[in-house]
Amino acid sequence: MLRPWRLDDVAVVKEAAEDPYICLITSVPSNYSDVEGAAFIRRQWSRAVERAGYSFAIADVGADRAVGQIGLWPGPHGRASVGYWVAGSARGRGVARAALCAVSSWGLERLGIPRLELHVEPWNVSSWKAAEGAGFVREGLLRSWQDIGGEHRDMYLYSKLLTDLA
Hints:
Blueprint: E1 2-3, H1 10-17, H2 20-25, H3 34-49, E2 54-59, E3 66-74, E4 79-86, H4 95-110, E5 115-120, H5 125-133, E6 137-148, E7 151-161
Parallel strand pairs: 4-5
Antiparallel strand pairs: 1-2, 2-3, 3-4, 5-7, 6-7
Helix pairs in contact: 1-3, 4-5
């Protein structure tokens, strides 16, 4: 399930901070401390207030324990970007796919955003399989698209359209 972040979600922020790739592509602190973990959560709260986007904790339904993050970031021209990460201990259970289904349905149907986009590095098979499983369509390869850790990397571009739901 998707829910607002809570301060007691710092454990998943700490786990994510131990994953060097998550720290490269997100605002999860690479030098974790409880203060930095709480600051990360407070930044997630401020996204909607500042109208910068919507950040949700991905949580286990039964335990209501955060296992990741997903965000929807509206932009110009009727588009919004989607970004997500799942802690290592929760991978391989379809968590990212389920979160992508939930946030994309909400963004397309409830918010009326005509186009959602996400970018995935070609080597990240689990991530692009989650995107495809949630109904996102690969549109192509963007060569040298994004600077990650000082290196320009290729990205697959995926989209999901409001018209895809018909």
